Amino acid sequence: MEEQYILTIDCGTQSMRALLFDKFGQLHVKFKKEIDFYISDKAGRYEADAENFYELMKEVCTGAKAASPEKYSKIAAITLTTQRDTGLLVDKEGKALRRAIIWMDNRLCKNLKPMNPFYRALFAIVGMGKIVKKLRQASQALWMKTKESHLWQKAHKFVLLSTYLNYCLTGEFADCDASVVGHIPYNYKNRAWDKKGAIKSRIFPIEREKLCEIRPSCTIIGHLTQKAANDLGLPPGLAVAGSGSDKACETIGVGCINERCGSISLGSQATIETTSMRYYEIQPFFTPFASVKPKALNPEYTLYRGFWLVKWFEEQFASQETVEAAKAGIDPLALLNERLQKVPVGCEGLMLQPFWGQELIRPEARGCMIGFSDKHTRIHIYRAIIEGIGYAMMDGIHKIEKVSKVKMEQIALSGGGSQSDEICQIAANIFGRKVFRVQTYETSGLGAACAAFCAVGEYPNIETAVKNMVHPTDFFYPDEKTHALYKNYYENVYKKIYPKLRHIYKKITKIEKENEPVEEV
User: Fold this and answer.
1) What gap in Å lies between CA 307 and CA 315, rounded to an integer?
2) How far is CA 402 from CA 5, 282, 358, 369, 397, in A?
């Protein structure tokens, strides 16, 4: 396999990419297209026609083939990594019966069929009643089952986006275990659908026959149909390898294969994960997800609106940088990141709490900025966003370490935010430990390629694949004086914001509920 490649299709929230990696982790071809077909409304609902995802896959593959026909002809396998918790209903032919509901969607189904009284009481006793209720209300499948019962009855399967796209490739309703992440009855510890009558099956009562087949990551889960081969310009029967969701693949793609390393994804949704061979919950009833590494798990702490906040700031406040960047032919964020250095550490007392929505363990939480004075500028706000996300990730590091009893000696960064040296250095200073990047910021695609090379037999296990394919290249070390200042802000200001404002957030929610319009059935 000296001259063969893995084709990774990476479908994130903002774009889709076709990536060709060799067995040493070098990225040879990249073709990217923005996702511009989401349909949203003022109520915070996000949907998309599922067929558009497959059409976009065809476009990026066509672009990759045009960029390097010779290398495209030497693809050993194709693998898929996608955004998590985006679901839809399909018929027996795999045709979508309605638009996919995207993970960012804010709708809640408030008239679900009640759970068994015994289990409702049990969850209430252990303090999980409200969280379980919110989990059920946020389930796309249960919303469809309740609000669109005629479609639910007609549907052959409820599938996640990864399952849908794998069906488009293979003609089988199957997915790999590390891709199955959502408000669904999946048992991550056993890597199987929860048994009938078990806890998750009671929280998310979805009929087993409407769920896909589960196959192991790092194995071949199917082969390209003739139609898919024609669409993508590949040979029919080409192996389709199982890898994992975007976050799971990012964790492998930065070389985080044990608990001494943490993987922070600075994407639209920011997360801190580690890889563990042990099962533990960093929050009661919040199970770790299945890792790309066989038999391993990814304990995770999530900030629902992560670097989405950066995009929000750019759209709302960075018109000046947008104009300047257009003239210079660069990304506006590059200008913003340069200007971070003009603001002192700690933003001269300006502090942001980045709970911008749907924080499951803090359902009433809102975003908050405190400490304003007349010396603060737009760039102070931008730096406060970056530091606020860093403080939130510090919370996650502490929570995982507290339960695991293992210190994260180093932190790997991936996602859009990791491209900035300034942001990486801020992260190192906040965390007080070494931060590093690997040879590409396409770490989700790289992790998926590691799994696929295992699937086709190039490497015997994921550890060997990571050793040969993942190469740390840039290191950022904390300045002790700066870390001490950040620690002071974190311990004495940031950690006290939510407890002090929680009751106010609840009052805001109460007033909103009293004045919200009646939901249409």
Assistant:
1) 13
2) 41, 8, 24, 28, 8
Rounded to 5°, angle at Cα 427 from 421 and 429:
105
Provide the number of structural domains found in the chain: 2
Among residues 92, 221, 69, 224, which one has the least CA distance to residue 155? 92
| DSSP state for residue 348 in the 8-state scheme | G
Q: Return d(Cα 32, Cα 23) in angstroms, integer.
A: 22
pLDDT digits (tens, 9 = 90+) for 131-160: 888 889 999 999 999 999 999 999 999 999
**Residue 457 CB neighbours (<10 A):** 10
Burial per residue of 190-223, b for 16 or more beta-carbon CB atoms within 10 angstroms, e otherwise: ebebbeeeebbbbbbbbeeebbbebbbbbbbbbb
E strands, 287-345, are 289-290, 297-298, 300-303
The domain that holds 321 is classified in CATH as 3.30.420.40
Does residue 68 contact residue 20 with C-beta atoms inside 8 Å? Answer: yes
Asked whether residue 405 is assigned to any structural domain, the reply reads: no
Q: What is the pLDDT of residues 181-223, one digit of tens each?
A: 999 999 998 999 999 889 899 999 999 999 999 999 999 999 9
Q: Are strands 15-21 and 27-34 parallel, antiparallel or unpaired?
A: antiparallel
Residue 361 belongs to domain spanning: 308-393+481-510
3-state secondary structure of 234: coil
Q: Model confidence over 326-364: pLDDT tens digits?
A: 999 998 999 999 999 999 999 999 999 999 866 777 778
Angle between the N-to-C axes of helices 332-339 and 421-431, in degrees from 0 to 180, rounded to the nearest 10: 40
Which has the closest alpha carbon to 450: 304, 291, 284, 297? 291
Residues 6+ apart with CB under 8 A from 41: none
